[in-house]
Amino acid sequence: MNEDEPTSVRRRGETRRRLLEAAAVLFESTGTISQSVEGICARAGFTRGAFYSNFTGVDQLYLALHEEQAARVWERLHHALDTQLAEERPATTLDEAVGLLLDALPDSRDWFSLRSVLLARAAVDPKFAARMVLDDDQVGRELGDRFIALAAVHHRVPVVDAAVLAKAIVAAHVGAVSQAPVDVSGALTQRLTVAAVIRGLTVDSRGASQEQRRT
C-alpha cells in the first residue's frame, strides 16, 4: 500500500478489490456471470452506491476480473520463461522446458473457467465482444521474443513472427485446457500440445545451417 496516496484513493482501491473478490467467489460457486449487483454487494459488504462508484455494471466488473486474472497468468509465464533463460543448466529437452513453464502457471480453474464463460458471451454479443480485450500486441511480442529465445536454447528457430508464435502457443494451450474437465490426461495433453506447436512453427537450427552450407 502506498502511504502517500490520499485516504479516499486507498479506500476506493480497497472497495474495488473486495468487489472483485466477491465476484470471483460468486462465479466459482455458480459458474455464471449472471449475478445481481445486490448479490455482489451483499457478498462484499457494500452498498449499490459503492458498487457504481467503481463499475458501470456487472459486465464491467467481470471483465475487470478477467483482466486481472490474465495479467497474473502473463506475469507468471514471463517469470517462468525468464527463469529458464537465466539457468546455467537449462532443461535438457524442449518437452521438459514446456513442462516447467506449464507447472509455473496458476491452476486452470483460477483463470480459464471465467475466460470460457466470457468468450461464450462474446460469441453471441458483438457489443460485449468489443469490450473484451483478448490479447495485447506488446504482451504478444514480449512473450514471443522469450519463446524464441527458449527455442534457441533447444536449437530451434522460428518460421513465423514472434507475436504469431506467442499467439499460436497460447491458443494451443487454451484449447488443451478447455478439454481438462473431460480429459483424464489433461496435464500431459497440455504439455504435448504446446511442445508440438513450438516444434511445428520452428525448425532445427543445426539442420538449417547444414542445408545453407550445402546450397
**Net shape:** elongated
Main sheet attributes: strand count, strand direction, barrel closure: 2 strands, antiparallel
Helix proportion range: over 70%
**Percentage of residues in strands:** under 5%
How would you describe what is shown here?
The chain is mostly helical and 215 residues long. The chain folds into two domains: 1-55, Arc Repressor Mutant, subunit A; 68-214. It has eleven helices and two strands. It has a two-stranded antiparallel ribbon. The longest helix is centred in the middle third of the chain and has 29 residues, at 58-86. The chain is elongated, with a radius of gyration of 21 Å. The termini are far apart.
Write the layout of secondary structure elements.
Blueprint: H1 7-30, H2 37-44, H3 48-52, H4 58-86, H5 94-103, H6 112-124, H7 126-131, H8 137-153, E1 156-158, H9 162-178, H10 186-200, E2 202-204, H11 205-214
Antiparallel strand pairs: 1-2
Helix pairs in contact: 1-2, 1-4, 4-5, 4-8, 5-10, 8-9, 9-10
